[in-house]
Amino acid sequence: MLALVISLSALAGPPPPPIVNGELEEGFPSALSIGFPAGAQSFSFCSATLITPRIILTAAHCSDDDTLRNYGIDAGFDAILPFISAIFGPDITEAGAESAIKFASVVGHPDYVPLSGSGRNLGEYDVSIMVLEEDAPVEPAWVRLDVMDAESVEGEEVYSVGFGLNEQGRADGKKRSAPLTVDTLDEMFLISYSETNGNGANICSGDSGGPQYKVDDAGREIVWGVHSWGDSDCLSSSGSTRTDVFAEWLRGEVFVVHGTDDLCEAAGRYDDGVCDDTLCTADPDCAVADKEEARAGCATVPGAVGFAPLLLALAGALRRRR
Predict the structure, then answer these.
(1) Radius of gyration over alpha carbons of the chain, in Å?
(2) Higher pLDDT, 232 or 169
(3) In this structure, is residue 81 part of a structural domain?
(4) Does residue 65 lie within any of the structural domains?
(5) Long-range Cβ contact pairs of 61-66 (< 8 A, separation 24 or more)
(6) Whole-prediction pTM
(7) Is residue 18 part of a domain?
(8) Number of domains in the chain
(9) Residues 104 and 181 in one domain
């Protein structure tokens, strides 16, 4: 099973324990599995997030040939690409044909540096996109692209979602989630320490490439990070690549696929009747909403309806005095 890059030493040895405090998850529909949807023979080796109808966001190491070899897959990623799918839904063993979509291509970040056991190198830009052959059956997630700062991010609760190992240490193909705290804003990663999370929760094997969502007050699921690494026992700490550090690269790849570098436009969020001004600064629905609000304001200015009768009455009084 291709898994989260989870060790600061060699990746050889027994598989790591299951997701700590992971709960079965029916929600977060934009979180998906990358694998083989074949009923009892189904196999999930990474997690990902749908960010436009055709683009999923995942970890670069999920398509790294060296990582594949560590898990007994000798063929290069290009060789297995025609046989794997993006699988939507909470359980890949029950996903129908309409929930599994093949990939047209994969593009890793050009500055990707793999995690290395030497010198505690945690890697860099562990992110890639995979392009679907057809539109996905669910709504894309939002992606945070503005610059993060420690004051507004550290201490915030995020939700990590993925298709990692179950409580028995087996890959059962089910989606799980766990709330984590962002403890440190590293130059490259959102770092979470298990000791600050409820019941020691953290991400683990099989969650590679999955999302860390921040759910805002409007209930929108916004991707803040992409699962990258964790400690070898999944009991201490983990790091997820910050979305803001690869924002410009992501915009460029979205342009290649959709002809626009505006993720809101590519995701179909314009002209949908909803003003998303805080996340889509160019949303035309907001201009319409502002005009409607202005018109409503003009019709309800306090005292405006009474001005004309008052003036007419005053004019009548002046005529009588003459």
Answers:
(1) 25
(2) 232
(3) yes
(4) yes
(5) 61/5, 61/114, 61/115, 61/123, 61/126, 61/208, 61/228, 62/2, 62/34, 62/128, 62/208, 62/209, 63/106, 63/108, 63/128, 63/130, 64/114, 66/114
(6) 0.82
(7) no
(8) 2
(9) yes
What is residue 124's three-state secondary structure? strand
Residue keyed to tokens 């290069």: 76
Residue 4 lies in a domain: no
Neighbours of 11 (CB within 10 A): 16
Nearest to 257 by CA among 139, 82, 132, 108: 132
CA gap 16, 202 in Å, rounded: 13
CA 263 – CA 280 distance, rounded (Å): 9
**Rounded CA separation 127/203 (Å):** 17
Report CA-CA distances (Å) from 146 to 37, 77, 296.
36, 32, 33
Going by C-alpha positions, the residue among 182, 238, 247 that lies closest to residue 206 is 238
**Do residues 27 and 175 both lie within one domain?**
yes
Looking at the structure, do residues 226 and 154 belong to the same domain, yes or no?
A: yes
Answer whether residue 294 shows pLDDT above 50: no
Q: What is the pLDDT of residues 242-274, one digit of tens each?
A: 999 999 999 999 999 999 999 999 999 998 888
Q: Do 169 and 227 share a domain, yes or no?
A: yes
Residues 140 and 175 occupy one common structural domain: yes
pLDDT at site 174: 87
The Cβ of residue 141 has, within 10 Å, a number of other Cβ atoms equal to 23
- Domain residue limits at 39: 23-266
Are 129 and 67 found together in one domain?
A: yes
Query: CB of 122 within 8 A of CB of 227?
Result: no
Here the tokens at position 213 are 């969502």
Q: In the structure encoding, which two tokens stand for residue 60, read together?
A: 């670069």
CA–CA dist 128, 123 (Å, integer) = 14
pLDDT digits (tens, 9 = 90+) for 33-53: 998 876 667 788 899 999 999
Q: Tell me if 28 sits within 8 A of 177, measured CB to CB.
A: yes
- The length of the chain, given as a count of residues: 322
AA letter at 172: D
